[in-house]
Amino acid sequence: MITLTPYPDRTWWHRGKPYSRLELIGDAVIHGIGLLVALGLGGLLVASSGIETAPALGVYVASLLLVLSISLAFNLAPVAPLKRLLARFDQAAIFLLIAGTYTPLLALLGDTPAGTVMLIAVWSAALIGIALKLIVPQHFGRLALLLYLGIGWSGVLIFQSLASVLPASTLLLIIAGGVAYCSGIIFHLWERLHFHNVIWHCFVVLGASIHLWAVLDCMVLQRL
């Protein structure tokens, strides 16, 4: 039976019950796999980029590596003031990754109104989210969740424009990655389930890997 009732001592940055050694090891392994995939495919992506696409791809790969590194540090840190500090950056970095993922895809739209407006809107919303998480992380939790989902799926607003420059395979991968992220949310919230955090991060790494492959698909593979 699924119960989303939190532990009595839960705070905005800690679930209220320490994770077991096996859970921490599992989390480290999943993050390690994610970092290896990001370094491998991300490095290939940047190495294969041209002068025009290098900045956007650099922003994307840097945001991916940063969010995985911060998440690893936060989840393995002991319950102490350091963990509380890392929690701010862990939650803020998600906004950075969402905007970073959009950047190379929107760059393919060039100077079109749809691409320019969307890029400004995505980064503006992401910066608002980052500010909320860094300054008042204990407040506006629901607003932050809505921002995560809203920014993440905002691409549907310019789907036709994206479909005109992205291959069908890339579009399917983008959607699949979004579904993977969202599917893991239930395990993120299901804190009383053993290994819930490991399962959640499995979905995160899966979603991030699919999106990385999507960018690689449209930026490199389709141009071979």
**Category by helix and strand content:** mainly alpha
Q: Helicity range of the residues?
A: over 70%
Span from first to last CA? Answer: 49 Å
- The number of E-state strands comes to 0
Helix and strand string, N-terminal first?
HHHHHHHH
Q: Within the CATH hierarchy, at the fold level, what is the topology? A: Rhopdopsin 7-helix transmembrane proteins
List keywords for this structure.
mainly alpha, 8 helices, 224 residues
Can you characterise this structure?
This protein is mainly α and 224 residues long. It has one domain: Rhopdopsin 7-helix transmembrane proteins, CATH 1.20.1070. Helix content is 74%, strand content 0%. It contains 8 helices and no strands. The protein has helices at 21-47, 54-76, 81-107, 113-135, 141-152, 159-165, 168-189, 196-219. Helix 1 packs antiparallel against helix 2 (54-76) and helix 2 (54-76) packs antiparallel against helix 3 (81-107).
